[in-house]
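Caspase-8
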Amino acid sequence: MQTLRENKTLITEILSAEPDFILQHVQQAKIVNLREYNNLRVVGHPPDTIIINLLDKVMNKGPEKCLDFVELLQQPNIIETYSRMEEVFNISHTTPSDHTLSTGTRDPYTTSSTDTTGQAVGMSSEVCQYRMTSRPRGHCLIINNVHFNKLEERRGSDKDGDVLTDVFQWLGFKVTVLLDQTAVQACKELKRFGEEKHGDAFVCCVLSHGDKGVIYGTDDEPISTNDLFSPFNGTNCSSLIGKPKAFFIQACRGHDNQARVQLEADNNPGHQIYIPADADFLVAMATVDNYRSFRLPNKGSWFIQTLCKQLKQGCPRGDDILTILTQVNRDVSQKDERYWDNTAEESKQAKQMPEPKYTLTKRLVFTVPPQ
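Tokens:
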């Protein structure tokens, strides 16, 4: 509490630069409850007034909550956003003048010296977290192709579209669902979304048939996978520079006929998916090269349904997307279905292994906005 009292003016000045960011983290850390959070976020109040009210609220809660708040202020993602917070806690970036070993423990949030290569170690080597405070968080575009000219109807894809809509609306995104897009229509919409004003992140979910290096429009015409990503790279979309762009693609990547009667598959022969060279992209594919992904007509696909389940469980805990996708990999890999192989004239098991690829430069956490 003494630290807050003695540095109240400086802390107020620093935190006033981004009041929404610290308010969200304080609420997530349960330093204030949801009602107090909403009371602090009064529309029209100057940022410094909001922070002063926050500090008063925390100090009135007693020493334990004050300690929790001070520890929060020293976390790496907070320091990254409010770099001047180092002034409050005297976080050092210099090497000690002697080389004696300390017998005490080092504060986990302080920055240690540099190693012999000159590379900073300690806090400076921590992987920071993408900001996720804008309301809405950003756009979530769902392209759900079900009916095609000649290709099979993708029965069960409506289940995937519904659960994706529910989850990303819950996560604070503005969701747009585009049903049955031709190749030209899909490319036009992707370009349009690339020109939109964006929040802290962009999410795109593509549910369709495909082939090597392409996703099919409902007119059975191909869309290059690179054309899915390029409207959102740093060259074409300046408002998403430094912000995460997450793509979740439900399609097979193999050509073998492995589905049982009640189990359907999206045809997308294996290839090495191209991720744009620009940073901050995540592309999560339903399966690895050369294999099918499976979709149950009455339940939806293994990948999308498991993804949404894990997002619902992991996001409130503060799990980052790679942790969540690792759990998705585990859960989907443990699923299996028996099917009859007409060629071999024997019963076999159908398995699936999702595959994420990324050029993320920070931890991507889809924080749940207060409801």
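Residues 138-358 form a domain with the Rossmann fold fold (CATH 3.40.50.1460).
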